[in-house]
From TrEMBL, chain A:
It is a multi-pass membrane protein. Its main location: membrane. It is found in: Cell membrane; Membrane. Keywords: Membrane, Transmembrane, Transmembrane helix. Belongs to the GerABKA family. It comes from the Bacteria. Pfam families: GerA. GO terms for biological process: spore germination. It comes from Pontibacillus marinus BH030004 = DSM 16465. This is GerKA2 spore germination GerA type complex. The keyword Heme does not apply.
From TrEMBL, chain B:
This is Germination protein, Ger(X)C family. It comes from Pontibacillus marinus BH030004 = DSM 16465. The keyword Lipoprotein applies. The keyword Signal applies. It is a lipid-anchor. It is found in: Membrane. Residues 228-392 form the Spore germination GerAC-like C-terminal domain. One of its GO terms (biological process) is spore germination. It comes from the Bacteria. GO terms for cellular component: membrane. Belongs to the GerABKC lipoprotein family. InterPro entries: GerAC_N, Spore_GerAC-like, Spore_GerAC-like_C, Spore_GerAC_C_sf. Gene3D superfamilies: Nutrient germinant receptor protein C, domain 3 (3.30.300.210).
Length: 507, 414
């Protein structure tokens, strides 16, 4: 596999053109010249290139690294000092001599210049020795990252509070801490991006559906861009339907969720710089569940599931139901309510649908402003929002009080949807259903819901039907809308096609 | 332009919101009154239209009247709404009409059911709209009906028509049932009977032996009384039942949803007093029809459970088994007598059963022609009906012994 990074003829990105699949030369000076040129040496302050004398071999050598990516202590203690002062018996092969000499955990031999460059870019230290055609990449990487913190959006009351941070190695250690199993595999996939991004695939090798692993790899292989900074971007490169409202990849900040998915045969994707991982394939239920659903006891968990189900429904249809019923099906209302709404609406200058749109628009505004507002001004949003939405609009006879209740309950319900993507979906679909309700009444809402369901049934995420194992029906642990007790969840969901459907001890 | 876009665009442009009405632009009729037309042409129609603003704070409607009532002559009570719109700005909406009040005079004429059933064709009218027959003119009834407790006019009809479930003093009567019975022809239909006038034949009955307008009362804020029922045979009103008779008619029906009815019975030991009890039919009435016999024989078994909670005579029916048995038999005889007299009345006076017994008869036949040939309506008036009442006591209230008035007197309580 060549590295297209070097072959691409694109100058505007700032990468230096080079048609090099060059091998290292025997002469240290030539190699040094090549490397310094590649790393823009006189300009590039971070690139360090230092000459050393290897005492054991009595040879000239040079080490190359990028200052901010390495641990200087490691270089000093485990590279420079042994090289210059330690004495061992020189062995036949240079590699084994060096291995003995340098107490470094990872040690790679590179013969191509491009490999060396890549190694340096990833925080390795390159050791070149006079008269040798081999370069030695020593692992000295040390990247700065945030400390482990609580997950920001997937908060639980009961359960672990460690969330992923922006470092793959930390994230992997968080996962491995929860699942100490020899079949837990990390596979590194090199992307064909200019910047040599790697993606780590994690899965349990004796459970995973190998077809999915292959599918993910082939999709990763097809990505051709300059750089993928983080996993949220990777998600958009991987998904099948970029225009769809429905998410098909789960984005989670919680290592425990990642582990539970791996144990069901899913594949987890990790990249650098992302406080989250991706899980594929997923179904509707994955977005609907939270980690806490399993941690809380059976009755409590199902109770919160019901609340959430209710919230999901409310978030999508409440404003539409209001419009449909007050405009088309007045007979459905209790007479008292019909009269009360009629009385309050009498002085409102707009039809019900406009009233809803006004309130929806102001609520969405408030929501977006609340996210973007700098925290010192934050409280203002609350005051303005409460005043505008709650009181002033009613007193000014622009909206009726019942409308405030409807928008408030819709907003509240949309916050109860656990997944960010699903929440967006509900927020946007709401307007579609509202439109249908305004022109066709309850009939329109029914059409909207049927169309939505038909679409959900039709789509797949990495080959898995989105509403399975409910529709089409598959054997599963019964963890869909409600869940069984943990003891009775005997099966892995068969729609994922894991290698072993039955959950049992002993691996 | 993409081809698939054509379908949604057609769907949206070809359908439309033609039926859309803003809720505040509607006038909600809560009661419809039907009277004979004075000119002899069409009907005299009364609409009671709710005022949504009434009683709602901050809308300026606090002191407004809760409804407006309008009466006019029109050929049909549904088409009349266009006429009403000549002077009512809002669109007349029947979807919240709770009650149709029909005057007794109209109910006794063919025009009554003709106009009533015509109304069913309109999709805007509820099938469960209650049917009330008023002794006086319907317009008068609606005008006079002025409940103080309920601010809004529909509430009174909603609530009082729901009381049939507990008291059984009025039957469960709505349009749908009326049409069913009217088409079936073998069963009589009972409609709620009501009046806002006082009638001279005031009488001192027991707690339920009244017709509307007869209850000897003072106050109560509303002249309207709903008690008893109007008997319909083939869509025509043929007579009335008092509150008590209505209750018994409900019990004689196989399935009656009436829950508890309070009732009193003569005390067998001390006939001066009456024993108060809550009556509950805990099982369905078992009706058997021997259709092969001539005359027709009908066996009725009525299981009743009684919770006695008032023994003003002070007789110990609670712990004394013999006296209890005496009471049981007395109540049984009393009830059986009353059932018999009601059945007799229905046979001789009205010639139609009021107890949905055609359901029972149907079971004895394999197909409809056989049943039709049997002709229940003809055989019923001559049928021999055996009524057996099974009385069980479920309780005697929360006090074990009756109050000992003698002791009480001695201790100076009385």
């Amino acid at each position: 596999m060549g590295f297209r990074f070097f072959n691409r003829q694109r100058t505007e990105t700032g990468f230096k053109e080079n048609d090099n699949n060059m091998l290292l030369s025997k002469q240290l000076d030539a190699n040094t010249r090549e490397l310094t040129e590649l790393f823009e040496q006189p300009l590039n302050d971070d690139f360090v290139n230092r000459a050393v004398n290897i005492k054991t071999l009595d040879k000239k050598a040079r080490i190359f690294f990028i200052n901010e990516l390495v641990d200087p202590k490691v270089i000093e203690e485990f590279i420079l000092s042994p090289l210059t002062s330690k004495q061992t018996d020189p062995q036949k092969e240079m590699k084994s001599t060096l291995k003995e000499l340098l107490p470094i955990k990872e040690f790679k031999v590179a013969t191509e210049l491009s490999d060396c460059v890549k190694g340096i870019n990833n925080g390795n230290t390159l050791l070149l020795i006079e008269g040798s055609e081999q370069g030695f990449l020593l692992d000295t990487t040390k990247l700065e990252h945030r400390n482990i913190d609580k997950p920001q959006s997937e908060v639980v009351i009961k359960g672990a509070n460690e969330g992923f941070v922006e470092s793959v190695s930390v994230n992997k250690s968080l996962i491995r801490k929860q699942l100490r199993y020899e079949k837990l595999v990390t596979e590194k996939v090199q992307l064909k991006t200019r910047a040599n991004n790697t993606v780590s695939l994690m899965y349990v090798s004796d459970l995973v559906n190998e077809g999915v692993v292959e599918d993910v790899k082939s999709r990763l292989d097809r990505i051709e861009v300059d750089n993928i900074e983080n996993i949220a971007l990777l998600e958009q490169h991987l998904e099948e339907r970029p225009y769809s409202l429905v998410p098909s990849i789960l984005y989670t900040e919680r290592p425990d969720r990642a582990v539970s998915y791996m144990l069901e045969g899913h594949v987890v994707l990790l990249t650098e710089n992302s406080p989250a991982c991706l899980v594929v394939p997923v179904t509707f239920w994955s977005f609907f569940h939270t980690a806490e659903d399993s941690y809380q006891r059976w009755a409590y968990a199902n109770f919160i599931r019901f609340v959430r189900m209710f919230a999901f429904f409310i978030a999508i249809v409440t404003p539409s139901l209001y419009v449909a019923i007050t405009n088309y099906h007045i007979e459905m209302l209790p007479t008292d309510l019909a009269l009360a709404i009629a009385a309050k609406r009498e002085t409102i200058p707009f039809p019900a649908i406009i009233e809803v749109l006004i309130m929806e628009a102001s609520f969405e505004l408030l929501r977006e402003a609340g996210v973007r507002v700098p925290s010192p001004i934050g409280p203002t949003i609350g005051i303005v929002g409460a005043l505008i939405l709650g009181q002033a609009a009613v007193e000014a006879n622009i909206v009726s009080p019942i409308m405030v209740i409807i928008i408030a309950i819709t907003g509240l319900a949309s916050f109860a949807i656990p997944d960010n993507s699903l929440g967006f979906m509900a927020r946007i679909i709401r307007f579609g259903v509202l439109f249908l309700a305004a022109i066709l009444g309850l009939f329109g809402i029914a059409i909207g819901i049927i169309l939505g369901l038909a679409y959900l049934v039709s789509i797949r995420s990495f080959g898995v039907p989105f509403l399975s194992p409910a529709a089409p029906s598959n054997k599963s642990s019964g963890d869909l809308l409600v869940r069984r007790t943990i003891r009775n969840q005997w099966f892995r969901p068969k729609n994922i096609k894991p290698q072993d459907v039955k959950r049992k001890g002993g691996g | 332009m993409k081809k698939w876009l054509v379908i949604p665009i057609l769907l949206i442009t070809l359908t439309g919101c033609w039926d859309r009405d803003e809720i505040e632009e509607e006038a909600f009729v809560v009661a419809i009154g039907l009277d004979e037309s004075e000119s002899g042409n069409g009907l005299l129609i009364t609409y009671q239209i709710a005022n949504p603003q009434a009683g709602i704070p901050n809308t300026g409607g606090r002191k407004e009247k809760s409804s407006i009532i309008t009466t006019f002559n029109a050929p049909n009570f549904l088409t009349a709404r266009d006429l009403a719109n000549a002077y009512i700005a809002r669109k007349i909406n029947f979807s919240h009409a709770k009650t149709i009040v029909m005057s007794e005079a109209l109910a006794k004429k063919k025009e009554g059911y003709k106009y009533l059933t015509a109304g069913l064709r309109d999709s805007g009218i509820r099938r469960d709209i209650k049917l009330i027959v008023s002794r006086e003119k319907a317009s008068e009834f609606i005008h006079n009906n002025n409940p103080m407790l309920e601010t809004r006019p529909h509430k009174f009809f909603d609530l009082i028509a729901g009381r049939w479930k507990e008291t059984g003093l009025v039957p469960f009567s709505n349009m749908m049932k009326f049409i069913q019975k009217f088409e079936k022809k073998e069963d009589g239909f009972l409609a709620i009977y009501a009046s806002t006038n006082e009638y001279k034949e005031n009488k001192e009955g027991n707690e339920d032996d009244y017709l509307p307008g007869q209850i000897n009362r003072q106050g109560g804020a509303n002249p309207a009384e709903l008690i008893g029922s109007a008997v319909f045979k083939n869509g025509l009103m043929v007579g009335t039942l008092t509150g008590e008779e209505t209750r018994f008619a409900m019990i004689l029906r196989q399935r009656s949803e009436t829950k508890y009815m309070g009732s009193t019975f003569p005390d067998p030991v001390n006939p001066e007093y009456r024993v108060a009890a809550k009556l509950n039919k805990h099982l369905a009435t078992n009706v058997k029809m021997h259709t092969k016999k001539d005359p027709l024989v009908i066996d009725v078994h009525i299981p009743l459970s009684l919770e006695v909670h008032g023994i003003p005579s002070g007789v110990n029916y609670v712990t004394n088994k013999e006296k209890q048995e005496l009471l049981r038999n007395a109540i049984k005889t009393d009830l059986e007598e009353k059932f018999h007299s009601l059945i007799k009345k229905s046979q001789e006076e009205y010639g139609v059963n009021l107890f949905n017994w055609s359901h029972v008869a149907r079971r004895n036949f394999l197909n409809l022609p056989e049943y039709k040939a049997f002709n229940l309506s003809k055989k019923y008036p001559k049928a021999k009906v055996n009524v057996n009442v099974e009385v069980i006591f479920t309780g005697f209230g929360i006090k074990l012994n009756p109050h000992n008035y003698q002791d009480a007197k001695r201790q100076g309580e009385f």
